[in-house]
Design goal:
Chain B: It is found in: Cell membrane. Chain B: Keywords: Cell membrane, Membrane, Transmembrane, Transmembrane helix, Transport. Chain B: Belongs to the binding-protein-dependent transport system permease family. Chain B: Residues 115-371 form the ABC transmembrane type-1 domain. The complex is a heterodimer. By secondary structure, chain A is mainly α. Helix content of chain A is 67%, strand content 3%. Chain A is built from 14 helices and four strands. By secondary structure, chain B is an all-alpha fold. Chain B has a domain at 115-312. Chain B is 73% helix and 1% strand. Chain B has helices at 3-13, 15-30, 36-41, 45-62, 64-67, 107-143, 145-159, 163-170, 173-178, 180-188, 190-203, 208-231, 243-271, 275-283, 287-298, 300-323, 335-342, 354-380; strands at 86-87, 95-96. Chain B has a two-stranded antiparallel ribbon with strand order 1-2. Chain B is globular and about 75 Å long. The termini of chain B are far apart. The model of chain B has no long low-confidence stretch (mean pLDDT 88). The chains are: A mainly alpha, B mainly alpha. Chains A and B meet through helix 1, helix 2, helix 6, helix 7 and helix 12 of A and helix 7, helix 8, helix 9, helix 16 and helix 17 of B.
């Protein structure tokens, strides 16, 4: 187990390293940098001015060097602005230039400064991630049990009418992306045109105070899309288990159908969905971005869109870092969980 | 117009589609016993409904010019956010069947026209992703080894990216300015050519006459299309792709490719242990012959099912791109963009956003049901 874990973590670090470098290279393409310089200083800067500005602020170094700086394995650049005042990656107005650290990157816990929000990236990410955490928590609370129940009910008697109905429902939910179900929900349940107005079409007020009224629609919208997939996986796994020898034995022992399902089939049937639920996270991340934009909930996804739209390089990089780490961690947990849950799986 | 009249009018506008559907379905059901696997699908209710929904949109896209009531880009004064069934002031007898959007354009016509954008990109992008998946996944699964390790790692790398982040990084004017999409297209679009060249090369290697003839045809056709699609340099001007669309196309192929790679690789690994593969190896067939003419045909069942599902997923991806206003022109009537336009006033005027949303859902649902029907048929055999 130790060796397996070590290998997985090593692979994970390598993946994270590659991915952040790709994001870094893509966000730091020359046209992106020029656009950023223009938005930051003056949209009508001439090309020479842009080039001078980029050189002064350390953007003209080779990409690898700057990636090293961002990572914190290369010393931050230093220079001076037009008035001769010392400037540099690791310098900030609060401390004297001589006391500033030489390295300041991700490894030192410095994620940089957001040009859109005019605040340190770390604080923004922490705040927004907490908001998204609540959304995710409720989505999971709604989605996972519902999906498992649907899957188990459909899979326990394969081919029955209940199975057919629930399967069609699951297929329908996987065909309804968030931006469709969200639009339908808002139009029907929250618009003045239909007149029901049971819920609010905006979740902006949920950031301070979550209520049933302002948080139901975003949670429902997100839960619905992911639900079908988990339900179908659970159904397939349940249907497979129900044909197994030990289930037949349990039937022949004279146990009731309910007991067979709950005590014998369920535990075995839930191994595969566990992996699926864990691997669902990268997908949920896209959902978070859509739902937060649609409902105006200013969490992590909303921040990502703002960062990308305004080419806020350091914020976007940190967002990708967080996203990538979440994805890789869930993969790791899913691998480990699979080994623990499934007695047939032994790691050499 | 009353709601009933609106529905009646819409049904009437879709007349070419109904005729087309009847022309396809009636013979298919009558002769289903003689149509092989396709006829079997006709005996499956779920598959039938799925096929019907898909064909509905394919035909709607084909006959879009006959179906629409107004030009999808025309803005008529006084029709801003008009309710469904409002008469157009200057054109007697003409209506905005599903109302007007916030720029006073016809929602119905935009929805019908939007199907063209989706159906022009989604199936083709899926097909290209499949070609690339074949060319990389088959050798990875069949040979294993270092090639497999490298490409599996790369596939997992792409899969670890949240899709939306990838789109935000790849579908921007700055990326287009850097020329990366053209480079990527130049590489990605080589896969189909390579696929067909190897396919023919492996089959007719013993028959030089046919080999030269077929290879010649493939290369001429392939390179002609290639020059048009990748570099927008088709000498005859038949195949062209504007930079925006190329950017979207390449990104969507790129997102789908690793998943297809993994599926194909898994199937190849499973099938290579079969006896008929050993027989082909003993006969001394070339590796590409075994991969393309032995493994691939025997893996077709799961691949066809996944192909249907993947077109649906690609449709959702295209909608996501439109929803975030990435890559498409703001005028474009594609469904994602229209939903995005409509969502700003959703709680007051839901009618501009709902039709494209439901259209997108019905197409994806159709593809998913079709896939489910095909899967059930495959399991029965």
């Amino acid at each position: 187990m130790g060796w397996f874990l070590l290998k997985r973590v090593g692979l994970m670090l390598l993946t994270a390293f590659c991915l952040t470098f790709i994001v870094f290279a893509l966000t730091n393409l020359q046209p992106n940098l020029e656009k950023m310089a223009k938005t930051l200083v003056n949209t009508r800067m001439s090309d020479e001015e842009v080039a001078r500005w980029l050189t002064r602020y350390g953007y003209e170094q080779p990409v690898l060097v700057r990636y090293g700086e961002w990572l914190g394995v290369m010393p931050g650049w230093t220079g001076s602005d037009e008035n001769g005042k010392p400037i540099g990656r690791c310098l900030n107005p609060d401390i004297a230039p001589e006391d500033a650290p030489r390295f300041c990157g991700v490894l030192q816990g410095n994620l940089g400064y957001s040009t859109v929000f005019k605040a340190p990236v770390k604080a923004i990410i922490a705040e927004r991630l907490a908001l998204t955490g609540w959304l995710m928590l409720w989505v999971m609370i709604v989605m996972v049990p519902t999906a498992l129940i649907i899957g188990v009910l459909a899979g326990m008697r394969e081919g029955s009418r209940l199975d057919r109905g629930l399967s069609i429902f699951s297929i329908a939910t996987t065909a309804t992306p968030e931006y469709v179900s969200g639009v339908v929900f808002i139009s029907v349940l929250a618009s003045s045109a239909v007149g029901l107005q049971w819920f609010k079409g905006s979740a902006a007020s949920a950031m301070e105070h979550m209520t049933f009224e302002n948080f139901t629609l975003p949670v429902l919208t997100m839960a619905l899309y992911g639900m079908g997939y988990i339900a179908r996986m659970t159904r397939a796994s349940m249907a497979e288990v129900m044909t197994a020898q030990f289930i037949r034995t349990a039937h022949l022992k004279g146990l009731s159908f309910g007991t067979v399902v709950v005590r014998h089939a369920l535990r075995n049937a839930l191994i595969a969905p566990f992996t699926v639920i864990m691997l669902q996270f990268p997908w949920l991340l896209t959902g978070v971005v859509i739902v937060e934009s649609l409902f105006g909930y200013k969490g992590f996804g909303w921040t990502l869109v703002r960062a990308a739209d305004n080419n806020d390089i350091e914020l976007l990089l940190s967002c990708s870092l967080v996203a990538v780490v979440i994805v890789l961690l869930t993969q790791l947990i899913s691998d480990i969980g699979y080994v623990y849950l499934n007695p047939r799986m032994r790691v050499a | 117009m009353s709601p009933l009249e609106i529905v009646g009018q819409i049904v009437l506008r879709f007349l070419p589609v109904w005729i087309g559907l009847a022309a396809i379905f009636v013979p298919s059901i009558l002769f289903r016993r003689r149509l092989g696997p396709y006829g079997k699908l006709m005996e499956n209710r779920v598959g039938q409904i799925g096929l019907g929904l898909v064909l509905f949109w394919v035909l709607a896209a084909f006959f879009a010019d006959l179906i629409i009531t107004s030009n999808p880009l025309d803005q008529v004064s006084g029709m801003k956010n008009a309710l469904p069934g409002t008469a157009i002031p200057d054109r007697p007898g003409a209506f905005y069947l599903l109302g007007g959007d916030n720029l006073a354009r016809d929602v119905f016509s935009r929805m019908v026209m939007g199907s063209r954008t989706v159906l022009a990109i989604a199936p083709a992008a899926t097909l290209f992703a499949y070609m690339a998946g074949f060319m990389l996944g088959l050798p990875a699964g069949y040979f294993g080894g270092r090639f497999d390790t490298v490409f599996s790692f790369a596939a997992n790398l792409v899969l670890a990216f949240p899709v939306i982040l990838l789109f935000y990084l790849l579908v921007t004017p700055e990326i287009r300015a850097s020329g990366i999409p053209i480079l990527a297209a130049a590489i990605l679009f080589l896969f189909p050519i390579a696929f067909f060249v190897l396919l023919i090369g492996a089959r007719f290697s013993a028959d030089p006459h046919k080999l030269v003839l077929y290879l010649g045809i493939t290369l001429v056709l392939g390179l002609w299309v290639y020059s048009g699609l990748a570099f927008n340099a088709d000498p005859l001007g038949v195949f062209a792709m504007d930079p925006n669309r190329l950017n979207i196309f390449v990104s969507v192929v790129f997102v789908n490719m690793p998943v297809v790679f993994r599926i194909v690789r898994g199937l190849a690994m499973e099938i290579r242990t079969r006896d008929y593969i050993a027989a082909a190896q003993t006969r001394g067939e070339s590796s590409w012959y075994i991969m393309l003419w032995e493994i691939l045909p025997n893996a077709r069942g799961p691949l066809i099912v996944d192909f249907c599902l993947r077109i649906g997923y690609t449709t959702i991806l295209l909608g996501t791109l439109g929803f975030f206003g990435l890559g498409v022109s703001p005028e474009s009537p594609d469904w994602g963009t229209t939903i995005n336009d409509g969502r700003k006033l959703l709680s007051v005027y839901p009618h501009p956003a709902l039709p494209p949303a439901l259209a997108l859902m019905s197409l994806v649902l159709g593809l998913n049901l079709l896939a489910d029907g095909l899967r059930e048929q495959a399991l029965k055999d």
